[in-house]
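Q: Could you fold this chain for me?
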Amino acid sequence: MRLATELVEVKVLGVTIDPTNNQTVVILKEIDSDRVLPIWVGPFEAGAIAMAIEKIKPPRPIAYDLISDIMQVFDLNVVKVIIESLKDGVFYAQIVISQNDREEYLDCRPSDSIAIAVRLLAPIYVKRDLFESSSVSFVRKEIDDEEEETKKFKDFIKNLKPSDFKWH
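A: Sure. Below is the predicted structure, expressed as structure tokens.
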């Protein structure tokens, strides 16, 4: 059994673009502090998370919307998401699903679990030792470049079309 004190509750502060490499990043902020944990994710996943945060509904459901709908129809609940570890630069997570008295921990990419959690309003946690070793203090810089990058990313998200995505 996992102890609650081993976990740090976080919320999605936002999605941004890392100006050093133009990669998308989800920023998780500890609920009770100014510490943040950046997690680099793919652009599709970042877009899906940002759309859920901004409450933007695509004309057709994307995979995360479908998963959320299926879970609701079949009375499955996301108990929580746990970002567990970092190995060779890759974060690992579990999504905890329950139905009735049954609870299952499923291996999941952090980006996928976050995209589902924000849709279903499920709590997100990071293991305390991982958070303490990988988080940084959040200092909001009020500079034009940062605001411009945020505006560009929001414009990118708002203008997404289904044809922009590659389906495998």
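A (continued): The two ends are 38 Å apart (CA to CA).
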